Amino acid sequence: MTVVVLIAAAEGLRGHLTRWMVEIAAGVFVGNPSSRVRDRLWNLLSDRIHDGQVIMIEPAHNEQGWTVRTAGRDRLHPTDLDGLILMARSRR
Question: CA-to-CA distance for 40 and 8, rounded, in angstroms?
């Protein structure tokens, strides 16, 4: 399963995501796209997010069973802490 969270994103991005995933709450999308579709969606989202934020959680072969990608302004950054992925905000 893949989860995408859009924060302060253009309506066009939300509309594009509804082709592949279901919007379960405002800006939160869930689906099971193939890795090929997921990579193409990520390229589109990261290129067009501009001043917003996008977070994609996707399946991975690790202890947690998932990994995360982030893009955009003032975003959270995945941080590996002894094999556990935590999210950290950059200090200003």
Answer: 21
